User: Fold Ascorbate-specific PTS system EIIA component from Alkalibacterium olivapovliticus.
Amino acid sequence: MLNKYLSKETMQHAKSVESWEKAIAYAAEPLLEKGVIEESYIKSMIDSVEENGPYIVLKDYFALPHAKAGVGVNEVGMSLLTLDDPVDLKGNPVKLFLVLAAVDSSAHLEALSEISEILMDDESYAIFLSGDLNDITKLITKGDD
Assistant:
């Protein structure tokens, strides 16, 4: 299910970015280009962190930027930005930005469950932290053959 939303076309790698705001915008670019989200959704994700603090940081080096379901979202989607150098997100160093675009409160839950499993498995998480998009793709498509 995860690979239905997260594919090579929606994953990017960069050495570094200037700020967490730019990281969220950059991470969301593939979804914007595909018409999955509107520009307003990117602003909403950034505004949400400004208002609520770094609640999107779910694990060391990992953030799950998202905003209100269905607002500025045309279809369910996910995109990933991996960084070599962590960026400071309100006191938290982050190297992985996994953007979640949800149309409602349930359509994305299976993919989110799969991401949770990966985050809890140290070996799988190390693959994500490595930033190697080929290895990440292999990991998320494992079991689909």
